[in-house]
Structures are given as C-alpha cells and as structure tokens.
Specification:
heterodimer; A: mainly beta; six-stranded mixed β-sheet; 12 strands; B: mainly beta; seven-stranded mixed β-sheet; four-stranded antiparallel β-sheet; 11 strands; globular
Chain lengths: ~120, ~110
C-alpha cells in the first residue's frame, strides 16, 4: 500500500529562522509526483511546491525548497526566512499517475512561526 | 472563475438525518475529488471522478455515502442516516487534464452531527 508518513506532529520556530519538515513515503512505483500543501487556520489548502519523481533536481519556489531523496523515499520541505504567515498545517502528499490519480496525504505537521 | 466552491460551509444536523453537500469545481477541470478531514489529521480519500465517471471509492465510504457528478461539472456528496462519527470537514478538490499534477481545494463543508 502507498503511504505517506510525517513524523513531526508539531514544530515551532522563530520568525526569520529556517525550518525543515520531514516526509517519507512508500511506493513500489517509479513514476509519481510529490507535493507539499499548506492549510492555514480556517482557510483552504493550497499547493506550496511539487516534485516529479523522474526529475533529479530539487524543486524550489522562492523561500520554499525540497530535498528529494528518491532512493530513501524521503521528501523534506525547507522554509527559509520563515514568516508569521507561514503558520499553518503542512501536508506531504503523493500521487502515482501510473496506477490512479488518488492523492495520498500524510497526517500533517502543525508549524508555528513565533514572533 | 474564483476557484473550487463548496456549499454549505457549515452544516449541523441531528443524528439519523440525511445531508447533501455540493462542490463546484474550477471550470473545465475534469477530475474531482472528495476527502474527509478530522481535526488534526490529514485528508482521507473518499472518492473521485473523471468527468461524470466515478473511478474509485474508498473503503471508508460506507453504503450510507453516495457521490454523484451527473454532468461532469458540479458534484454532490450525500450522507444518509448520519452518525456522530460522520462529523468532520468534507473537502472537495479539482484538477485538470489526464495527468493530475495539482489539485485545487475548496474551503470545505464542516459537518457536525449532534
């Protein structure tokens, strides 16, 4: 079964610091996509960043970057220069297009950015 | 088009009643997903559609749950004979194209069964 594991239920960092959120996943497939979604309090989920498994280069989006280790099935999210608006639940997610397009989510990491 | 729209935003119902939620996806998005999210947890997959065809249903979706997307546009999720355990946020998401690389989520419908 395909699973996504986020081992950090909750984290807190000071504003302007860098923080890394961990994610591991399990699949026997070779072609898939990985995502980090952000869910601010009482607001809808939005995509932060995505990574295609066939691409070796780590994806970056402004202050957000990933460390994709395919062999280790690891997909961590780094937030640089953290801002108060980064406070949210962060979900790691996986989709395997060769089997179905069902998006599998981890249980999330609640991130608090402290002023 | 302002995104995925879900109605109602909140629903309080008595145990045993039926409820129906609606999701309007982004125009021309052919894929539509339903998820359930309980407090502090990640979204759990319920079902999804490719146009009007329902492609998969989760084991979480008991016989009391049914979803439709009759014309390949909006979708409804109905829960019959609601139970307290059905209390959750129900999320809808849509995506475009045959290869789903990004899903856009609605704000969800929060169901409380009393």
């Amino acid at each position: 079964a395909q699973t996504v594991t986020q081992s950090q239920p909750e984290m807190s960092v000071q504003e302007a610091e860098t923080v890394t959120l961990s994610c591991t996943y399990d699949t026997s497939e070779n072609n898939y996509y990985l995502f980090w979604y952000k869910q601010p309090p009482s607001r809808q989920m939005i995509l932060v960043i995505r990574q295609e498994a066939y691409k070796q280069q780590n994806a970056t989006e402004n202050r957000f970057s990933v460390n994709f280790q395919k062999a280790a099935k690891s997909f961590s999210l780094k937030i640089s220069d953290s801002q108060l608006g980064d406070t949210a639940m962060y979900f790691c997610a996986f989709i395997d297009n060769s089997r179905d397009d069902k998006i599998i989510f981890g249980k999330g990491t609640r991130l608090h950015i402290l002023p | 088009d302002t995104g995925v729209s879900q109605n109602p935003r909140h629903k309080i119902t008595k145990r045993g009643q039926n409820v129906t939620f609606r999701c309007d996806p982004i125009s021309e998005h052919n894929r539509l997903y339903w998820y359930r999210q309980t407090l502090g947890q990640g979204p759990e997959f319920l079902t999804y559609f490719q146009n009007e065809a329902q492609l998969e249903k989760s084991r979480l979706l008991s016989d009391r749950f049914s979803a439709e997307r009759p014309k390949g546009s909006f979708s409804t999720l109905e829960i019959q004979r609601t139970e307290q355990g059905d209390s959750a946020m129900y999320l809808c998401a849509s995506s475009a194209g045959l290869v789903s690389t990004e899903a856009f989520f609605g704000q969800g419908t929060r169901l409380t069964v009393v």
